[in-house]
Amino acid sequence: MKFDVNCVFCKIIDGKIPAYKIYEDNDVLAFLDVNPVTYGHTLVVPKDHYVSFLSTPKDIMNKVMNVAQRIGQVQMEQLGAKGVNILINCYEAAGQVVKHFHVHVIPRYESTDGFKLEMKDLKDVNLPQVLEKIKID
Ligand code: 5GP
Ligand code: ZN
29 forms bridges with which residues in the sheet? Predict the structure, then answer.
């Protein structure tokens, strides 16, 4: 069991901090975000402490994503959501505050319901140069 004594999500997993748990198995826990951006905003985490989605072993990552998908479906079916945003912040520069991999499953009711992911166009990007740098086999 990978555990970080200073991690708030490890404390929730360990039962030291209460949370509204909506799903639990041996590897994965899902609970309501304490500061929801929309009605039903849920977090899905691996029980083992991995800092980021990018550093989580594939088998664990797959289990977390499977639960996230199911929760998104239930939000559509049970909460009347019209859509769902799946959000993973990786590292501080991307807005990650809690350093334990988590998936935000954010039910959406309308485009003005409180959550907004703003995407601004970068001007003058050399796309072939980017491709050269990050193309993978
Ligand atoms: P991040 O910005 O790291 O992707 O998001 C962390 C999320 O964890 C935030 O949405 C925040 O509201 C939530 N959070 C932080 N501390 C707690 C807590 O003690 N309990 C619960 N349920 N959620 C928390
Ligand atoms: Zn942790």
Answer: 24, 45
Separation CA 19–CA 44 (nearest Å) = 12
**8 in Cβ contact with 18 (< 8 Å):** no
Q: Report helix, strand or coil for 45.
A: strand
pLDDT top residue among 117 and 12:
12
* Cα Rg, the chain, nearest whole Å: 17
Distance from the CA of 3 to the center of ligand 2, in angstroms? 6
* 102 part of the active site: yes
Query: Token pair 């664990």 is at which residue?
Result: 60
Rounded Cα–Cα distance for residues 89 and 94 (Å): 5
What is the model's pTM?
Answer: 0.97
